[in-house]
Design goal:
The structure holds two protein chains of two kinds. Helices cover about 75% and strands about 0% of the residues of chain A. In chain A, helix 1 packs across helix 3, helix 3 packs across helix 9 and helix 4 crosses helix 5. Chain A is mostly helical. The radius of gyration of chain A is 20 Å and the shape is globular. Chain A has one domain: ABC transporter involved in vitamin B12 uptake, BtuC (Orthogonal Bundle), CATH 1.10.3470.10. Chain A is built from 14 helices and no strands. Chain B folds into two domains: about 140 residues, Rossmann fold (3-Layer(aba) Sandwich), CATH 3.40.50.1980; about 120 residues, Nitrogenase molybdenum iron protein domain (Rossmann fold), CATH 3.40.50. Chain B contains eleven helices and 13 strands. The radius of gyration of chain B is 21 Å and the shape is elongated. Chain B starts with a helix and ends with a helix. The chains are: A mainly alpha, B alpha/beta.
Chain lengths: ~350, ~300
């Protein structure tokens, strides 16, 4: 275990992960609420890729304008949320840390709801108002929780942070209800929004997600070594020469941006960020150099499959994706947690 | 032959109405001095007796508020549910919480004789607490247009405005008759959009007012395989390719209007309704509330669909 000379993934392993994710992507594009023969799907995709003329059927817009952008957005959201979860779990040395348990997603939701309620928009760019507010509130939430946690318990123990997160979540939810009460004419919009939906995702959304994820993942992956040190303990990190304050701030800001963007596009989706790192850890072990990239692929695959279930199970009805992730996530989490406890103390 | 029969039917109906109205008014003038007490059966089958027509009413549901105004009893309203917004005067009436947040104290404080509410969210305990405070609780529960007639008649009786209520019902029936049976609309498909794409598409399926009104006109609701309101897949809308789209999204004056937003959706270019610009935006709950304005909504949809 000690002194592994090269502890990041070999290109071969990475390619393998990428292949699995890509296969899931194609699988999810081929299946959906409307049944389109596999051959047609492949033809449409192939022709679109090569810029050839497309056949004149309803399958074309269904695949190219509805399914593909949605699955892409789901994939990127899954990758982002899992990366956030893994980074926060490492940074806070806390296996329960995640955007949803810490109240960051709820905070982001509040920001977005405020943007809707008060009609905060940036000129020209349609959903930018919601996005900026979501990011801002995600960051503020993290700051509030961590400041309180430091005041109460300098060692930032698991219990303190989770307890504060839960309380903060409830507090923010009640403010959200308050906003909904006061903004009664727009209440319908906010209610629908808080239920979270990735339907109506566009390529523009996917592009934003991709850009943000690329920048943020570079930052976070670049901090793998520091996160490894943090995972043993903050003091330990300081001893081995990590700039604790700076690392922490950078990770927290990056995570807020990622969660804020995800929430503003797809609403708050629970359990992905919490469960995926635990599942992935079973394969990769705790080293962040392996864990973080593997989590991105794992989260993407997990969320794409959940979304597929949400789209297919009750067709033509659609389930909120959060329902599926929570159902699967909660069960898987309990299972993994129980098994890990039996083996060794976490 | 058929239309003659129809005319005859209408005529006889009107005649019967006149007779009834005459009888009723006759009765009233006779009975007024001694006994003004009113007994009605509400829509959960409970019998309610009032000494005299109610003069102080709290109505929790927006539809009941609309009915009160429609039968000319709007001035008796001393409190309204927070979502009541039509007609505009209703906004001057003190608002109370409704639905799951119904607050008994607020209602008791307004000292109404009657509380009108729907069965949606109130518990039996709440009803009992109100009755213990001496407030008669009258429940309206219209699930279809027949039910709306019933609740209008019931509220009319309750307020001593039976004739006005009958007129309102009659007016609705006439409008509905006017909009049904147009050959050119037969078999056309309509898709009702309850929430815009951004929040996930919700539609009104079977057993909704929208569906009932569409059927009446001979239109086919694209999602009549969905029960009630439900979130549906965007793919399905494209696949089912509606001829007409009705959106009830509200517009707050910023960004594209709901119609423009639908017209601009990627991949919707080939949907017939989008190609023909057959998208109607009904912003004021005309088609979703069990109230007299259902007829207005039906007329708007009819005029739009038949291209008037």
């Amino acid at each position: 275990m000690k002194n592994r000379t090269n502890d990041s993934f070999s290109p071969l392993t990475l390619t393998l992960f990428a292949l699995v994710t890509a296969a899931t992507l194609i699988f999810c594009v081929c299946l959906g609420s409307v049944r389109i023969p596999l051959g047609d799907t492949v033809t449409v995709l192939w022709r679109a890729l090569r810029g050839q003329e497309l056949p004149d059927s309803s399958a074309v817009p269904i695949i190219l304008n509805v399914r593909l952008p949605r699955v892409l957005c789901v994939m990127l959201t899954g990758a982002s949320l899992a990366l956030c979860g893994a980074s926060m779990q490492g940074l806070l040395k806390n296996s329960l840390a995640d955007g949803s348990t810490l109240g960051v997603s709820t905070g982001a939701s509040l920001g977005a709801a405020l943007a809707i309620a008060f009609g905060i928009t940036l000129p020209q760019i349609p959903f930018a108002g919601t996005m900026v507010m979501a990011i801002l509130f995600a960051f503020l939430s993290l700051m509030v929780i961590l400041t309180l946690a430091y005041r109460l318990d300098y060692s930032l123990s698991t219990n303190t942070i989770i307890l504060l997160g839960v309380i903060f979540s409830m507090f923010v939810s009640s403010i959200l209800s308050l906003v909904i009460t006061f903004a009664s004419d727009k209440v319908k919009n906010i209610v629908f929004w808080t239920m979270g939906s990735l339907s109506g995702s566009s390529y523009a959304n996917a592009l934003v997600l991709l850009a943000v994820l690329m920048i943020c993942s570079l930052v976070l992956l670049g901090l793998s070594r520091e996160l490894n040190a943090f995972a043993i303990g903050e003091d330990n990190a300081r001893h081995v020469g990590v700039n604790v304050r700076r690392t922490k701030l950078v990770v927290l800001i990056t995570v807020s941006v990622l969660i804020g963007v995800c929430v503003s596009i797809g609403g708050s989706i629970g359990f992905v960020g919490l469960v995926t790192p635990h599942m992935v850890r079973l394969i990769t072990g705790p080293n962040h150099k392996r864990l973080l990239p593997a989590c991105m692929f794992g989260g993407a695959t997990f969320l794409m499959l959940c979304d597929l279930a949400a789209r297919m199970l009750l067709s033509p009805l659609e389930l909120p994706i959060g329902v599926v992730t929570s159902l699967i996530g909660a069960v898987v989490f309990v299972f993994i947690y129980a098994r890990a406890r039996q083996g060794r103390e976490i | 032959m058929k239309s003659k029969l129809k005319h005859f039917r209408i005529l006889s109906l009107l005649l019967a109405m006149c007779l009834m109205a005459g009888l009723l008014s006759g009765c009233q003038t006779k009975a007024e001095p001694e006994n003004k007490s009113i007994t009605i059966t509400d829509m959960t089958g409970r019998e309610i007796t009032l000494e005299e027509p109610a003069t102080r009413v709290v109505a929790l549901s927006a539809a009941d508020c609309e009915i009160l105004y429609a039968v000319g009893a709007g001035d008796t309203l001393v409190g309204r549910g927070e979502y009541c917004d039509y007609p505009a005067e209703v906004l001057n009436v003190p608002s109370v919480q409704s639905g799951y947040e119904t607050n008994i104290e607020q209602i008791i404080e307004l000292k109404p004789q009657v509380l009108l509410m729907s069965t949606m969210a109130q518990t039996e305990e709440q009803v009992k607490a109100l009755e213990d405070a001496g407030i008669k609780v009258v429940v309206s529960d219209a699930q279809n247009i027949e039910g709306v007639y019933q609740s209008i008649t019931m509220i009319g009786d309750l307020m001593g405005k039976s004739e006005e209520a009958a007129k309102v019902v009659e007016g609705m029936k006439n409008t509905f008759k006017e909009v049904s049976g147009n050959e050119s609309l037969q078999g056309k498909t309509v898709y009702f959009e309850v929430s815009p794409l951004e929040y996930g598409l919700w539609t009104a399926g079977k057993n909704t007012f929208m569906d009932e009104i569409a059927q009446m006109m001979g239109l086919k609701n694209c999602f009549d395989d969905v029960e009630g309101w439900g979130e549906i897949s965007e793919e399905q809308v494209l696949e089912r390719n509606p001829d007409i789209i009705v959106t009830i999204s509200m517009y707050f004056g910023e960004g594209p209007t709901p119609v423009e937003e639908i017209m601009g959706r990627a991949g919707w270019e080939n949907v017939t309704a989008v190609k023909d610009s057959k998208i109607l935006n009904l912003q004021n709950n005309e088609l979703s509330r069990p109230a007299p304005r259902l007829a207005d909504g039906a007329k708007m949809l009819y005029d739009f669909a038949s291209g008037k």
